[in-house]
Amino acid sequence: MTQASLTQNGAPLPPLSDRETAGLAALRAEPAGDSLPAIANPMHQGLDGLTRPAIIGGQAALVKSFYQGIFLPHGFAGAVEATRAAAALGVTPDLLGADDVSQTMGFVRLGEDWRPAGLIDMLDPEIFSAVLAAKKRFHEGATLSGAIPLREEFARLLEEIRRHPVLVPPVTIRMGWDQITDWVERIIEACETPMQPGACHGENALSNIMIGPEKSVQLIDFDRATMGDIWRDLGAMAQEICADDEDREAFIAAYTGAPATAPQMARLKLYGMLDDALWAMQLMLGEVFPERHGPELYKYAANRLVRLRTQISANDMARLLREAQA
């Protein structure tokens, strides 16, 4: 199949980028549809690269070509390692191939009866339990070669942000990078020693949870997976689905099988705030790369920072920081 003959609903598809062309060729993949649209909010989809349906070795696949300048904690090799580890545990589709030069991966494509999770799915006890079980399987079952301390991860992002003076937080959050940095460093200091070491998924948006037949679950996007504190994963996920402390206590009890403790609650909240700060930085950095920039990224970053500011204001931060170290 040639690009000229490739159509969707009878219309020619947009031309492939050079990066995609190289990646598809390396994986011996034939494109089978247009790339998935980048939707920052509420989907958190297509922010790291172009993903499109393809055929690899006669099998339905998805091929993901990463954008230039993407910050991955352990680089492309680390993303491949984590994906293979998750696939071996049965929590993500199998990896069909990877190409270091074009930074492209090909995965088994889930069927048409699979869809991304939404908030309402987390109200279904069976689905919620299946999601937490999949997360726990990865937390406890995967061993990855890389581990970057939180302080180092943040320092690398902050260095990139400060290299580009145009990247300023929106005035509506009433915090500049100095104030954000101060709070992030306090959170990192409180959480520097892992409460429960393990493998962290690192991509905890609900759109990275796929729901299939009979409420089966698969997790996707292990590009930022790393060894660390599994409460970082839990805090980021709780940030998406918990409205209040009652929700957070129920979330913790569902994962641990025991009532929530004060240190667990503190880490859950602080890691949620940290996730907002780090993702806002990642997204704003996209503005300096031609492949990625656009209003969607900045708008989503602004939303994350607004939520960060709101939660800092709504919580007794001194108490949370103290309890997180208990």
From TrEMBL:
<dbReference type="InterPro" id="IPR002575">
    <property type="entry name" value="Aminoglycoside_PTrfase"/>
</dbReference>
<protein>
    <submittedName>
        <fullName>Phosphotransferase</fullName>
    </submittedName>
</protein>
<dbReference type="Pfam" id="PF01636">
    <property type="entry name" value="APH"/>
</dbReference>
<feature type="domain" description="Aminoglycoside phosphotransferase">
    <location>
        <begin position="125"/>
        <end position="260"/>
    </location>
</feature>
<dbReference type="InterPro" id="IPR011009">
    <property type="entry name" value="Kinase-like_dom_sf"/>
</dbReference>
